[in-house]
Amino acid sequence: MQTILSIGIDAFAYGMALFIICIGLSLTMGLMRVVNLAHGAFAMIAGYIASYVARDLGWGYGFAIILAVIGTIILSIPLERFLFRRIYGSSELTQVLMTIGITFCVIGITNYFFGPTLKTIPLPTGLSQPVDVGFRTIAAHRLFVMACGLVVAAGLWYVIERTAFGIKLRATVDNAAMADALGVKTQVVYAVSFALAIGLAAFGGVVGAEFLPIEPYYALRYMVTFLVVVSVGGAGSILGAVIACLVLGAVDTTGRYLMPDFGNFFFYAAVIAIVCVFPRGFFGKAQ
Amino acid sequence: MSSVKKLLCAAVGALIAGSVSASADTVKVGIIGPFSGPFALQGKNFQAGVEAYMALNGKSVKGHDVEVIYRDLPAANPAQSRALAQELIVKDKVQYLGGVYFTPDALAITPLLKQANAPLVIFNAATSAIMTQSPLVVRTSFTTAQTTTPLGKIAVDRGVKKVVTAVSDYGPGVDAENAFKKAFEAAGGKVVEAIRMPLNTNDFSPIMQRVRDSGAEAVFAFLPSGPTTLGFVKAYNETGLKQAGIKFFAPGDLTQESDLPALGDGALGLLTTFHYAVSHDSPENKRFVEAATKAIGGADQLSFPAVGAFDGMHVIYKMIEATDGKQDAQKAVDAVKGLSWTSPRGPVSIDADTRHITENIYLREVVKGPDGKLINKEIETFANQKDPGLASQ
Amino acid sequence: MQTLAQSEKLAAAPSLGSRFLRDAIGIAAIIVAGIAGYFLFPDNLALLTRVIAVGLLVLSIDLITGYCGVATLGQAALFGAGAYAAGIACVNGVTEPLTLILIGAIAGAAAGLLMGTIMLRAHGLAQLVLSIAIVQLFHEAANKASAYTGGSDGLAGLMLSPLFGMFEFDLWGQTAYLFGLALLVVVFVVLKFVVASPFGMLCRGIKEDPVRIGAMGAFVFPVLLKMFVISGAVAGMGGALAAISTQVVGLDSVSFELSANALVMLVLGGLGSLYGALIGTVIFMGFEHVVSAINPFHWMTMVGALLIAVVLALPGGLSSIADAILPSRGRTRGGKA
Amino acid sequence: MSDLFRVEGLTKSFGGLAVSRDISLSMPEGERLALIGPNGAGKTTFVNLVTGQLAPSAGRVILNGEDVTGLGAVRRVRKGLVRTFQVTRLFSDMTPEEHVTLTVLQREGKASRLLGRFHGNSQVSGEVESILATLGLIEVARRKVREIAYGQQRLLEIAIALALRPKVLLLDEPAAGVPSSDTPRIEQALERLPPSLAVLMIEHDMDLVFRFAKRVVVLAAGEIIFEGLPSEVAADPKVREAYLGSYANARSVA
Where, by residue number, does the polypeptide cross the bilayer (chain C) (predicted)? Predict the structure, then answer.
């Protein structure tokens, strides 16, 4: 029983970390219809900023998160204007080509300026201590990640379902021309949702750095994982992404506990099984 | 200055010997390594080792200028490895091949060597079997079995009877598991469970849970240098294994110096065995570290592949010397069989039978150095270790 | 009635001869380029042979992505199946190169059958993810079965007998290159026939509108599955060629990375034209080779910039330059990317 | 004597909403039937149910005395139950000649052959030519579909259907979206349909309906409310109510 609880809590933490990083990509793919393989590159950029702020300047973790999110969004603005805007509405494979190109560039540039070593984001002492939760100890930052995941999920749900912006966003997604005719500034909606998605990537990159460490190759190393999680959840669905992250996190974690030798088999077999049963992901919309 | 002097000496000596053609010729050396991509750091260390050696020992041997050509092979890819080697040999006319980080890449080159009449000096690729593929291969790094074997006795000496092994599920990981198991059980210990972890594991908590459930007194781990070691060491600390007194043994790949700043205080006290620590205390190493740091551009990036490359260049220089700049692979390899010298890592020699390096293996503990940075402090020496993987064949 | 009375007869098909001529010119161009490569870069034949092997892989993706509209990021599973089958056969005493290519083709086709059966259950993004999952499972299986595949150390020790008993596979790689070139030309000609056949036309139709194809009374699944098998055979031959010319088979030949790179090359060259697949492969690998030789440390930025530039300047891929120059060739192309 | 084609009690509901309710009708050989009804009456749903694009919740579809309800769309086509689409579904990069050739080859079971040329296949080119000629498409036979007029695309839809040698042909609004100057061409094409073929046409253009159909069925809210001669339709109170009612509704929505 203790073991099950223990595995469960690990799975939940890992799933939530995945969720925070992936949900931005789910929004870009589901709502903006852009297969943004450079998503991880933005998370990585945020990680570098946070590492610089927290480790080299010593300004503290909270500052690091805020500056990383803002900094990454600012960096993404010219990219959105000059590159991404050209591929809205293009075929998926053209988008893949462009965003892989961006990823390569970001990796090359990062490697050039910051070198190939791992970058850490020092945690405040409160988060770096193991916490005793009765039946075992767990790192405090894992609890923090879980909380962040829940807050992000709830916040996003509120923004998309309950605010004026959310209504405009959904209208634009369903029928951009119609929304335009109804006076919605679709360009602005796209720009804002792009910024939102990048901001989430940045937040996830920093908060999830304890699971997925920051280094130049980050952008490609975890690309497959992100893509798989988003697709299994159904692009654009918050609930779908939550469930996909929890299910895949649980499969991954229990698989690695029960039969570590075959951990990858479990993970990908689960992906195949889920996709065969839910061909559009858990909560994917019919195209 | 000293390099100029050396050059002069070499030139004078050559003139006296009268064995050098009047025109200064160039001997080319092709270095293949992961200079970009996920293993770029290791490739940079190759380059740093090579440049450090050439900075300290001059860019020519007996009047033959040495020119190094780098070729990038970002990840294990034998087809590309062969293509690069072929191009270096046929087009760039290199006389020596060096570098090679991954085993399959080395295996793709070995069939070419005889026809190419070129020796291959391996700076890293650490599987025993490579040496048997061609008589023209010399290796200046280590094998996983070589660095791991002393740990068996060390663990038993420290009162550990039951161990769980947790290794990355690929060639070197399996080598490490086998080598440790053999040494540990020979010393009277027992491996209660052997876990193989997929290479792309991100979250190691479930593994740690398994270690804890097994009731072992220690965990033996092997992971390739890089990001995953960070997650593993973190998980070891955070899941409370460390507090519970479960010991941690690993070959030194896991605590390579360039990863230590990222591992942070969580790495304190980890025991690893390896052939080289940047903190090794000797005049040779001081000179090496100084030169290599300059070449790589930052002390925190320096790691073990640099010393493999440094000594690899030493071997290549000796080969050039022995063949007097002429292309004769067999003569070059024969000349370095049994060669011994003092490397930055300590006394080493090339085993005449296996052409693999014989070296000291050190037990190290991660501690805070005098300047507060983490180092691998050597606390015990196992002298003149050969590769057990090859010795048994 | 007068609207119908204008003409009741189709003019004699003028396109037949010219289409044949165009294909003949195209194939001749490939042969000339291949032989020119042999003489211009006699020292890079191993690289050129690798380009051919990857070119076969990219062609195989074009068959299912460019002609049938099924995007895949797992094609290396088929390539690797061919490579390992040929490699294992070779280590176990089958050393005749042509036989090994045939073994590679069969293994690739079998893997294609399996992959198609699974992938065709889903559509769109889910399909893409299935392809990723499959190649990862193949990769894991190859890693686990190290007794047969050598695992991550690679399968080494492939000793080949000379081609036709005369030509050795040696350091200079002349035999391997010319053998590969001949294989590529044969495969290309066969594929030209396949895409111009009724079956090829059916595939193009499925890519554009499977419902319409169904209303024409044709089943979609068996057609696509058949194309998967053909594609697998082509990819498998590419893998076998790589195994033969390298004499080592590594796990990279069943990797996601190779799959993704190959798809990038295809999109770069232009989907739905066999020429585009080859152009994309040559340009991408050639560019990568040159920039990584110039700067082994930071060449990735340059490759990224190339991809971005192509999307901005030529959204239809590099082969769309040729279309702009030769408008008539657009007709032999499949639907728009 | 049994009818060539019959549907019995065809019903389809999505969730609790019935879009087709207990539809029964039958057609003998050579029938010319028009199915009309206000927007949203479920006409296209009916075609989808008959041709197998949708599975019915209840009811049967019988062709030539054989129950085909359990068969998929493709099998029904092969049995001779063929449709056209309300919005053309054509391959924009292919020519009319290629469309019809592909269809003929498919019918002959040769469409998935790997060997053998697609173009210039002498066995089928005669038939392709005559089908294209029937529909007046010879002139544009070698132009890409996206380059030809919409009216011609509609004719091509019919050409494809004819190339399948159907027994029963369901035309889903063959004149929809066609400029009125082009409707005579469609009408001519309809007149040239093989006499033994049973044709069910959905159409809004009442002139076309009156000239073409021998019998009219009116569908409203998923139910048949009228069946009879074209001349009787306009006078039927239920039909008037259905059409006018729907206009009244439409106005109130707008």
Answer: 20-41, 47-69, 76-94, 100-120, 176-199, 219-242, 263-287, 299-326
Convert the pLDDT of each residue in D38-51 to its tens digit.
887 888 888 889 98
Question: Does B387 lie in the same domain as B289?
Answer: no
Q: What are the phi and psi torsion angles at A122 (to 5°)?
A: -60, 135
Distance CA A19, CA A150 (A): 9
Residue with tokens 């740093």: B48
CB A209 within 8 A of CB A47: yes
pLDDT band for D252, please (50, 70, 90 cuts). Answer: very low
Chains sharing 3 or more CB pairs under 8 A with chain D: C
User: Domain-by-domain residue ranges, chain C?
Assistant: 18-254
**Pair C140, A264: CB distance under 8 Å:** yes
Work out the percent of chain A whose per-residue pLDDT is above 90. Answer: 23
What are B299-341's pLDDT values in tens digits? Answer: 888 899 999 999 999 999 999 988 988 888 899 999 999 999 9
What is the end-to-end Cα distance of chain A in Å, rounded?
43
Q: Are residues B167 and B253 in the same domain?
A: yes
**Cβ-Cβ contacts under 8 Å, C305 against chain A:** 101, 105
On the question of pLDDT at C134 being above 90, the answer is yes
Tell me the per-residue pLDDT of B160-218, one tens digit each, with 9 for 90 and over.
999 999 998 888 888 899 999 999 999 888 999 999 888 878 788 888 888 888 888 99
B212 in the same domain as B65: no
pLDDT of D1 > 50? The answer is: no
Q: Say if residue B227 is in the same domain as residue B365.
A: yes
Of A86, A96, A224, the CB nearest to C256: A224
CATH assignment at residue B50: 3.40.50.2300
Q: Which residues span the domain enclosing B64?
A: 2-142+280-355
CB within 8 Å of D123: residues ≥ 6 apart: none
State the CB neighbour count (10 A cutoff) for residue C293.
16
Q: Nearest CA to CA, how far is B152 from chain C (Å)?
A: 24
* Secondary structure of residue B359 in the 3-state scheme: strand
Is residue B2 scored above 50 in pLDDT?
no
Contact list in A for residue B36 (CB cut-off 8 A) is 108, 111
A260 touches chain B (CB under 8 A): yes
Residue A56 clears pLDDT 80, i.e. is over it = yes
Asked if residue B54 and residue B82 are part of one domain, the reply reads yes
Q: A202 CA to chain B: closest CA distance, Å? A: 19
Is C223 in contact with D112 (Cβ distance < 8 A)? yes
- Please state, in angstroms and as integers, the Cα–Cα distance from residue B41 to each residue in A105, B298, C298, following that order: 18, 12, 12
Question: Which fold would CATH assign to domain D5-89+166-253?
Answer: Rossmann fold (3.40.50)
Chain C CA closest to residue D76: C217
Quick check: A100 and C132 CB within 8 A?
A: no
pLDDT at C327 (0 to 100): 44
Spatial separation of the C-alpha atoms in residues A127 and A107, rounded to whole Å? 29
Cα within 13 Å of Cα(C179), Cβ side: 27
Q: Are B369 and B344 in a shared domain? A: no
Predicted TM-score (pTM) of this structure: 0.87
Check: CB of residue A281 under 8 Å from CB of residue A231: yes
What is the per-residue pLDDT across C299-321, written as a single tens digit (0 to 9) for each? Answer: 888 889 988 988 888 777 777 76
Mean pLDDT of C3-21: 58
In this prediction, residue B16 carries a pLDDT of: 44
Residues B267 and B382 in one domain: yes
* Long-range contacts formed by C96-103: CB under 8 A, 24+ apart: C96/C161, C97/C160, C97/C161, C97/C163, C97/C169, C97/C179, C97/C244, C98/C163, C100/C160, C100/C240, C100/C243, C100/C244, C101/C183, C101/C237, C101/C240, C101/C241, C101/C244, C103/C240
How many domains, in total, are found in chain B? 2
Q: Do residues B253 and B154 share a domain?
A: yes
C200: which chain D residues are within 8 Å (Cβ-Cβ)?
118
